Amino acid sequence: MLANIRIVMVATTHPGNIGAAARAMKNMGLSDLALVNPKLFPSEEASSRASGADDILASAKVYESLDEAIAGSHRIIGASARLRTIAWPELTPRQCAEMTAAEGGQHQTAILFGREHAGLTNEELERCHYLLHIPCNPAFSSLNVAAAVQVVAYELFQAAQGAAGAKPETMPDLATGAEMESFHDHLIRTLFDIGFLHERKSSPALLRRLRRIFNRAALEKTDIHILRGILTTIQHRLGIRTC
């Protein structure tokens, strides 16, 4: 289970937080760290704060975009301390861990942690199936990103220990992040083609709601093939060439 969990840190400003997160991961048996556009990495400060988790830093993968970091992930969960204008399915760290343990690591799960000062953007959360919220003092709810990784990693470790030896539920073959992005692009192009969307009048909130509908459905690979077949047929009927 733990081997199939990827911790993704997005646009981290302070390298010490990367090192502290690596240490938290190694404490709890996690090893897959992905960094999206970190301000400074590698770094002596990151190595110092890792306190022996240098192997996690050495194997960390650095990406230029979030889409690249989550391309192979089947379930994407974004950590956020803020409520959003459009409701997203929400999990606590324990619920996240229990859900992951129930499927026995059959799918790759990516858990996203955002910038120290602002967290994840709405556009980044659009890539997520769930929003992860750590309950804490409402008068002081901004948690250090490395501390947030520690809390989530602890719950994942506990759930993995509890599930050891148990037979996991048989899970469907879920679509990956890359497959979902390709579908969303195809859907939006088709909605423009049929006139449902208009270049100058398209609402970001509407596009966000469309993403939420399909992300919430946890589409399988077969579902994606069917839906894209429908979209392609519509385009063909309109005489539109598709790639």
Explained architecture:
By secondary structure, the protein is an alpha/beta fold. It folds into two domains: 2-163, SPOUT methyltransferase, trefoil knot domain (Alpha/beta knot), CATH 3.40.1280.10; 177-237, Helicase, Ruva Protein, domain 3 (Orthogonal Bundle). The chain is built from ten helices and seven strands. It has helices spanning 15-27, 44-50, 54-59, 66-70, 93-102, 122-125, 145-163, 177-193, 204-216, 221-237; strands spanning 5-10, 32-36, 61-63, 75-79, 90-91, 109-113, 130-132. A seven-stranded parallel sheet has the order 3-2-1-6-4-7-5. Strand 1 (5-10), helix 1 (15-27) and strand 2 form a beta-alpha-beta unit. Helix 1 runs parallel beside helix 7 (145-163) and helix 5 (93-102) packs parallel to helix 7.
